[in-house]
Amino acid sequence: MIVFSRKSATRLVARSAVLGAAIATLAACGGSSANEDVAYVARDVESLYGEAQRRLDSGNTLVAAALFDEVERQHPYSPWARRAQLMSAFSYYIARDYNKSIQNAQRFLSIHPGNKDAPYAYYLIALSYYEQISDVNRDQKITEQARTALREVNRRFPQSEYAADARLKLDLVADHLAGKEMEIGRHYQRSGQWLAAAIRFRNVVDDFDTTSHTPEALYRLAESNLALGIPEEAVKYAAVLGANYPGSEWYEKAYELVEDHASGVTAS
Questions:
Q1: How many angstroms separate the CA atoms of 97 and 104, rounded?
Q2: CB–CB of 52/84 below 8 Å?
Q3: Residue-range definition of the domain harbouring residue 59
Q4: Under a CB-based contact definition with an 8 Å cutoff, are residues 5 and 168 in contact?
Q5: Maximum C-alpha span of the chain
Q6: Residues 173, 238 share a domain
Q7: How large a percentage of the chain has pLDDT more than 90?
Q8: CA-to-CA distance for 61 and 69, rounded, in angstroms?
Q9: What b/e string do you get for 191-205 counting C-beta neighbours within 10 Å, with b at 16 or more?
């Protein structure tokens, strides 16, 4: 299971140009409840944006997001509206309302695709998917979405600090997806469905060969092919394991397995 680092992610987001656009705190608006805070009251754009920033700085992230949304609603054609779109997405991200964060960032990109803060918007989308990754026992649709979004950041902005962080996260995502394939493959093995198991382990070797799961996948392929009555394939996978991970515990197990059940067989 991936261990997330919200602190490091938030630090990186906070360094973005978007946050640098925040203005000095102005006078606070009245009212004690969140509903009162975001109720429609016509305000000049600087005061409204400043109040939203103040709420964000004080940790009242959902109210801040709603106030940034209000900036855009009341002043849709001002330069502040463009900044408020991303600040709203950031506020929702900090509040862990990832769906709204993604929606706002995507909306920003649809309206301002060539804006200088586009890299930040793409990165924020990727982070919002990444933070929702669940353990390997659950559906991995979000994990795939995180992988796609992180790749997009790296593809579009390879020299940016966002891409550097995206590449690190991609390694973790790949390991997570490989772990899911291994978990399913082991389940098939326990059920005696050796061909289905072999397909899952082969996916790991083919698609996630740089992850920590590859040595076990090669061993499990040797194991599955022996069970399927294809000792030549079992020997082949054991040989690949020995060539690439000679000191691995999985190679030692594979060597013993082949010695016991495929001695004298030549790899196909």
A1: 11
A2: yes
A3: 6-192
A4: no
A5: 85
A6: no
A7: 74
A8: 12
A9: eeebeebbebbbbbb
CATH code at 80?
Answer: 1.25.40.10
Give pLDDT tens digits for 59-112.
999 999 999 999 989 998 888 999 999 999 999 999 999 999 999 999 999 999
Number of domains into which the chain is organized: 2
DSSP string, the chain: -PPP-HHHHHHHHHTSHHHHTPPPP-PPP--SSHHHHHS-----HHHHHHHHHHHHHTT-HHHHHHHHHHHHHH-TTSHHHHHHHHHHHHHHHHTT-HHHHHHHHHHHHHH-TT-TTHHHHHHHHHHHHHTT---TTS--HHHHHHHHHHHHHHHH-TTSHHHHHHHHHHHHHHHHHHHHHHHHHHHHHHTT-HHHHHHHHHHHHHH-TTSTTHHHHHHHHHHHHHHTT-HHHHHHHHHHHHHH-TT-HHHHHHHHHHHHHSTTPPP-
CA pair distance 211, 92, nearest whole angstrom: 32
Domain boundary among 192, 220, 253: 192
Burial of 113 (0-12, 13-18, 19+ CB in 10 A): exposed
pTM for the predicted model, two decimal places: 0.78
Tell me: do 182 and 205 sit in the same domain.
Answer: no
